[in-house]
Design goal:
Rossmann fold; 215 residues; four-stranded parallel β-sheet
Length: 215
């Protein structure tokens, strides 16, 4: 799940500026789960904008703002409405997809924080850095890139105290968690496997994956 947080409303209003006629697009997937872009949040933002003298012409909540074809359909009611701008209440990728499908300025109402998991309702923890070279098979399914404050791939730094990270004592040491998981699953031999240090020299952004073969 892509975890987002609402931007301060004054930042959103500064982006909107003098725009009068506004559209709002939410997302029924991750942003809804994070309470940053579901039906409720879209309605709340629309009401606030109206209270500030803006005219909210049209609103919608896409099933997935990251899906180009779906967003294209969601935006059909937005076309030819003489909008001054659109506010995207999704992750950064969703905002870009909306911007690619409508010829007016598109502004984000959220900050995109991380790829994470819902531990329970309203509580999210970072789980993956999307690094492109997954080591979970040798670390007991616990990501050292995300869970270790130093992103160490070959064991602990030695600074943990009482099982907690020296950088942030509120966090468990990722490598102690990894050790315990490997021990519990009879895989301690994997601790001796040397993992290559993370380097991004061979990565060229933006990346593209095409499972359909040649374009």
């Amino acid at each position: 799940m892509i975890i987002t947080q609402k931007k301060p409303i004054d930042e959103v209003m500064a982006m909107v500026g003098d725009a009068k006629r506004i559209g709002i697009v939410g997302c029924s997937s991750c942003a809804t789960a994070c309470a940053t872009g579901g039906q409720k949040e879209v309605a709340e933002l629309a009401a606030y904008l109206e209270s500030q003298g803006k005219t909210v012409v049209v609103t919608a909540v896409a099933e997935y703002c990251c899906m180009n074809l779906g967003v294209r359909g969601t935006l059909k009611p937005f076309q030819d409405k003489q909008l001054d701008c659109v506010i995207g209440m999704s992750c950064g990728d969703g905002v870009q997809v909306v911007a690619n499908n409508i010829n007016v300025p598109v502004y984000p109402s959220n900050n995109t924080m991380f790829l994470g998991e819902a531990k329970k309702l309203g509580l999210f923890e970072e789980a993956c850095h999307l690094c492109g070279n997954c080591v979970l098979g040798t670390t007991g399914g616990i990501c050292p890139i995300s869970r270790c404050a130093k992103s160490l791939v070959n064991g602990p730094c030695g600074g943990a105290k009482n099982g907690k990270c020296e950088v942030n004592p509120e966090n468990d040491c990722a490598w102690i968690l990894i050790y315990n998981r490997l021990k519990d699953t009879n895989q301690l031999e994997k601790l001796s496997v040397r993992r290559e240090d993370k380097g991004y020299a061979d990565v060229s952004y933006p990346r593209t994956i095409n499972i359909r073969g040649k374009k």
